[in-house]
């Protein structure tokens, strides 16, 4: 049973586009917009509701990520991570969860180390070619457009828990 789902952000939870603004009064650029898919959010909220763990592991730092994670109940948020694999190992140890009970979703080269630490890896349809080659499951959805939800539904179906997911919303 998958108990921990590790999520990249840019290109996975979001569409990978970064929007910046520049404030000339303080001579500083900052990120102002990220696009997230509500279908992913609904899937993650249910995932957390049934007692599973979710974690964001991203190389970027962004208050937008913190806000979205809090909004949908993601329990663990790691930003500015250089070695995602090490982060996954440390979280597994903290939670007492074996790698055989972990999955990850990522779209680019910096997600390779994360994939090596989990039993099941997913790649959005629009991922980098190298990720496509090594991912266990190639999703039909693009990042930021339902890929995370598709992965969650895949896991629930494999564990014969999908009908409970549907019934929960009835």
Total helical elements: 7
Please tell me the total number of domains: 1
Please report which band the strand proportion falls in: under 5%, 5-15%, 15-25%, 25-35%, 35-45% or over 45%. Answer: 15-25%
Sheet with most strands: 6 strands, parallel
Strands ordered across the widest β-sheet: 5-4-1-6-7-8
CATH superfamily membership, which one? HAD superfamily/HAD-like
The average pLDDT value, as a whole number, equals 94
**How many β strands by DSSP?**
8
Helix content: 25-40%
CATH architecture descriptor name = 3-Layer(aba) Sandwich
Rg, Å, rounded: 16 Å
Distance between the termini: 25 Å
Shape type: globular
Order of helices and strands: EEEHEHEHEHEHEHH
Segments where pLDDT lies below 50 for 5+ residues?
none
CATH class: Alpha Beta
Structural class based on helices, strands and sheet pairing: alpha/beta
3D structure, described in words:
- The protein contains seven helices and eight strands, in the order E-E-E-H-E-H-E-H-E-H-E-H-E-H-H.
- It is an alpha/beta fold and 170 residues long.
- It has a single domain (4-168), classed as HAD superfamily/HAD-like (Rossmann fold).
- The protein is globular and about 55 Å long.
- The relative contact order is 0.20.
